[in-house]
Amino acid sequence: MATTPEISIRARSRYEPVIGLEVHVQLLTASKIFCSCSTKFGAPPNTNVCPVCLGLPGALPVLNRKAVQFAALAAMALNCRINQTSIFARKNYFYPDLPKGYQISQYDKPLAEFGWIGIPSEAGEKKIGITRVHLEEDAGKSLHEGFANSSETTAIDLNRTGVPLIEIVSEPDLASPEEAYEYLTRLKEIVLYTGVSDCNMEEGSLRCDANISVRLRGQKEFGTKAEIKNVNSFRFIRDALEYEIDRQIGILESGGKVTQETRLYDAHRGQTYSMRSKEEAHDYRYFPEPDLMPLVLYEKSLAEIRTTLPELPDARRKRMVEEYGITPYDAQVLTASRTLADEFEAAAKRAKNPKRVANLVQSELLGRLKAKGLEIGQSPISMSGIAMSADLAESGAISSKMLKELYDLSFERNQDFPQVYEKEKPQQITDVSAIQKIVDDIVAANPKQVEQYRAGKKTVIGFFAGQVMKATKGQANPQMVNELLAKKLDL
Ligand SMILES: [Zn+2]
After folding, report:
1. Which residues pair with 449 in a beta bridge?
2. How far is the CA of 48 from the centre of ligand 1 (A)?
3. Which residues surround ligand 1, an ion (CB under 5 A)?
4. Per the confidence metrics, is the pTM higher than 0.85?
5. Does residue 103 contact residue 81 with C-beta atoms inside 8 Å?
6. Could you say which DSSP state residue 272 is in?
7. pLDDT for 162-199, tens place per residue?
8. Distance, CA 204 to ligand 1 centroid (Å)?
9. C-alpha–C-alpha distance, residues 431 and 276, integer Å
């Protein structure tokens, strides 16, 4: 990454950055926010349009109920207070991809306010305030490539016009690019858990703008901020903020003044550059949208929405650590997505030893996935396959060496564990006299457990069965083992 002229560590330590983020998230409704056009991504240009989203004269918007429910759900997950009444407003500006000449958004009465997200910091959890969450419509897209003549012409695709968005505005509580990165990671995770968006950055379902200024440490007033727009990955946002901090400190240290402006980030050069200065900035002339009634959310509808709020990632991790005796790190990996966490929990609940399921994921599964460049969702071994292997290992039916070999075969053949095990499992010993001999030996060698069993602790039979399976390398027929043991112990 390229950087600005060297800023000395000493100079840098005299300043502190102040960062606030604005995140736009597309909601996963089937239709647009004010009309019934499809929101499907990737349709041929200008096919998902109608008089409403084209802004034709006389067309009137009708609010999509699902968009409101999704927005409220996301706001709840972000610990916001939902305003009973919120007002849609026209944000006026001219741009070729905005056919009405204004965007319907919310201004002084947003849907929700006063939220927060917890991020990890050296001093424990740090709460980053969320100023507001409001509903608005997306604009269309200007295309500069991918069609004939694209070097001379710009094309407009209005399929995206009117796709529902929430804008999530943070307080300027973020004190480093690293904290901004953490905030975005948490935010995305929470929104994904609620299921209101796919948060796919490549398709533009999650977009982020950052406001950044620096000030001398201890100073109360904010410095002049720059806004960095249209950065398409969290890593690039972190890099852009790092660059911008040094650039602004460099200006101040050489006696200059930071200009308030909008800047873009060039990921190849690792630098931000000016897009427009404050003089050219928009005055949006907001006013209440006359074609829409105030949005009123009664307690009853909010309560209904609240019932669809899932357990959120942080709470889930804490519970999983307690419930399954796994480490916080294990819990982090296993909650990477809601589906994965659901699958893990279903498997762990079925397995005899949940901790072993977690361990197998960590020690045997993730490494193999990484080596093959697979995501956990593409694993040939399902979570229930892992649970089965954990039970087999727990009972001594397979050794850890055998388990590793079976996992290798699963990956080689792209088959789930049960299939591979069925084919490769050790030949069973069904010779009664051979098993009887081992049962006799093991019962004789463990008088203390025999006593416990005979005193009424019948579950001790599991211990004996495990010992027999171990002694036969898992090859004894389990049903026979149980029958012979019961007979022997009940004498
Ligand atoms: Zn439409």
Report:
1. none
2. 7
3. 35, 37, 50, 52-53
4. no
5. no
6. E
7. 999 999 999 999 999 999 999 999 999 999 999 999 99
8. 19
9. 85
